[in-house]
Amino acid sequence: MTQAPIHSIPTTGSAQWQAKAELFDYRQAANPVRAGLTEPIPLRQWDPALHQSGPTAVVPLDLSNELGCSAPATSPGLSANFLRIEPGEGLKAAANATSLLFYVLHGSGSLKRAGTPQLDWSAGDLFVLPAGEPPLLTAKATSVLYWVHDGPLLSHLGVEASTARFEPTHYPAALLQRELDQLLADPSSARSNRLSLLLANSDLPQSRTVTHTLWAMLGVVPAGAIQPPHRHQSVALDLIIDCDPGCYTLVGTELDASGAIANPSRIDWQSGGAFITPPGYWHAHVNSSERMSRLLPIQDSGLHTYLRSLDIRFSGGLQGNG
Ligand SMILES: [Fe+2]
Q1: Can you say whether residue 36 is alpha, beta or left, with left for phi > 0 and alpha for psi between -120 and 50 degrees?
Q2: Dist. CA 236 → ligand 1 center (Å)
Q3: Are residues 162 and 191 in the same domain?
Q4: pLDDT in tens, 210-256
Q5: Which GO terms describe its molecular function (predicted)?
Q6: Which of 123, 214, 232, 250 has the CB geometry, 3.0–4.6 Å to 264, for a possible disulfide?
């Protein structure tokens, strides 16, 4: 329900200072995150069919209408996109953003950007770029990349990104796989239902995040795993790298007396698909298939960590995050 402010006086001349001034009864405005005002972030899922055919294009996972954002946005602060690039073609990943993160779902190619050495990328690579010229991504083979940036946050602030806060950084697939294999071989991993690598950058020692605003995790969910719920105030834009049918995430706002999620929504995973986990929601990943699955959640946890507002909590103690 829309309620008028208790003070709103149209004025002219020097009194224009008051033209936009409003006052609300505290009870009308103390919690503006509600339907019809500041829209809550919805549960949403995107099908891999979005990138499995078609021309070279940026495919935004766009909730801007629902969220009231002026440009494509997947959450209030982040934009997630699929990039599909045909062989021999190029695409400029243009965004006014402080952090651009790319994960190569499949294919291979190169990245060129003024002032930065060329990067050759292939499937399983992840790389991040700070503010600067739009990078040109050119494909050798048909390629699909997951691209997340923080442009919507800058649009909200009304600012242009001007300062690079970290060095461009590449996490090659072979490095990620080697580290993941070491984790899987660790004797303590046999008892864990959550095995994940958090990607970090030595320019950002305090947050231990992949950029100063973004957080990235390469995680595996072993066959048969049922993870205990956890929650955090960052939003998660989850990419499913690969899975068999039977993998899903349970999501809900409350825990029951046993520590399970009460009346959860179930999001069934699809290889190459994506979904959103809203801030503050309890969530738990389950793999009832017979094969290990892999996921890549991207969050705005770098920003939340800086603001000390991450508020991550685990049902039944620390088991992992994602
Ligand atoms: Fe999470």
Answers
A1: left
A2: 7
A3: no
A4: 999 999 999 999 999 999 999 999 999 999 999 999 999 999 999 99
A5: dioxygenase activity
A6: 250
CA–centroid distance, 317 to ligand 1, in Å, is 14
90 Cα to the center of ligand 1, angstroms: 34
* Domain final residue pick, 136, 171, 206: 171
Terminal alpha carbon distance of the chain: 36
Using the mean position of ligand 1's atoms as its centre, give its distance from the Cα of residue 132 in Å: 30
Instruction: Return d(Cα 238, Cα 78) in angstroms, integer.
Output: 12
Between the CA of 190 and the centroid of ligand 1 the distance, in Å, is 21
- Does residue 130 sit in helix, strand or coil? strand
Task: Kindly indicate the confidence band of residue 317, based on its pLDDT and cuts at 50, 70 and 90.
Answer: low
List pLDDT tens digits, range 160-179. 999 999 999 999 999 999 99
Binning the chain into helix, strand and coil, the percentages to the nearest 5 are 15, 35, 50
How many angstroms separate the alpha carbon of residue 232 from the centre of ligand 1? 7
The whole-angstrom separation of Cα 44 and Cα 39 is: 14
Q: Reply yes or no on whether the pLDDT at 153 is more than 60.
A: yes
For ligand 1, the distance from its centroid to the CA atom of residue 20, given in whole angstroms, is 40
Co-location of 156 and 178 in the same domain: no
* Cα–ligand 1 centroid distance for 117 (angstroms): 34
Residue 242 CA, ligand 1 centroid: distance in Å: 18
One domain for residues 183 and 219: yes
Q: How far is the CA of 301 from the centre of ligand 1 (A)?
A: 10
The rounded Å distance from CA 11 to ligand 1 centre is: 49
Read off the pLDDT band of 321 (50, 70, 90): very low
Same domain? 159 vs 193: no
